[in-house]
Amino acid sequence: LFFGLIRAYKGVATLIRAFATLAREDPELTLVVAGECYEPEEPYRTLIREHGLEARVRFENRFIPNEEVATYFAAADVVTLPYHTASASGVITIAYAMDRPVVATRVGGLPEVVFEGETGHLVPPEDPAALATAIRGVFARGGREAYAKGIAEKRALFTWARMREVIEGLSRPASASRR
């Protein structure tokens, strides 16, 4: 699953190229790209056609309302963030809330929230072969169940209670923290 706004820097084209490799290896795989395009969608549709993936890629170019978000994540085995650049992404915390491993690129703040081998895998940006290898690795390791323990442990880092704790810690005077 790729979920969220579809923009060139988010690497959907890289994901489609990676999926072309995976689709040749496993006739059961499907790629779902769900989100609203902020640029013309035709380059993605052309890439899908060039690789003969029309029947294997579900491209949902539309705003996904809150009521449908869980359905997409529940249907996914792995969530992918093949970004070329990034600061952060709320998609990762949604994936963790739904117990889904994440394969993301090693850009921006993503390496701070994707824990290699525990909650998913990190790959270099703009590298379809590395992306395909990491996705393949999720399945080879046993799929999402193999990451469930790591995701459950790390998910606690992203709760509102943890956020409050961190903010309160920042607001304490330095002298209080030395006691």
Report on this model:
By secondary structure, the protein is an alpha/beta fold. The chain is 44% helix and 13% strand. It has helices at residues 12-25, 42-50, 66-75, 90-97, 128-140, 148-155, 160-171, 174-177; strands spanning 2-3, 31-35, 57-61, 79-81, 102-105, 120-123. Strands 1-2-3 form a three-stranded parallel sheet, with helices on one face. A three-stranded parallel sheet has the order 4-5-6, with helices on both faces. Helix 1 packs across helix 5. The longest helix has 14 residues, at 12-25. It is globular, with a radius of gyration of 18 Å. It starts with a strand and ends with a helix.
* Helix-strand string: EHEHEHEHEEHHHH
Structural class: alpha/beta
So how many helices? Answer: 8
Quote the beta fraction: 5-15%
Keywords:
8 helices; alpha/beta; three-stranded parallel beta sheet; 44% helix; 179 residues; globular; single chain
Describe the structure concisely.
Helices cover 44% and strands 13% of the residues. It has 8 helices and 6 strands, in the order E-H-E-H-E-H-E-H-E-E-H-H-H-H.
Mind sketching the topology for me?
Blueprint: E1 2-3, H1 12-25, E2 31-35, H2 42-50, E3 57-61, H3 66-75, E4 79-81, H4 90-97, E5 102-105, E6 120-123, H5 128-140, H6 148-155, H7 160-171, H8 174-177
Parallel strand pairs: 1-2, 2-3, 4-5, 5-6
Helix pairs in contact: 1-2, 1-5
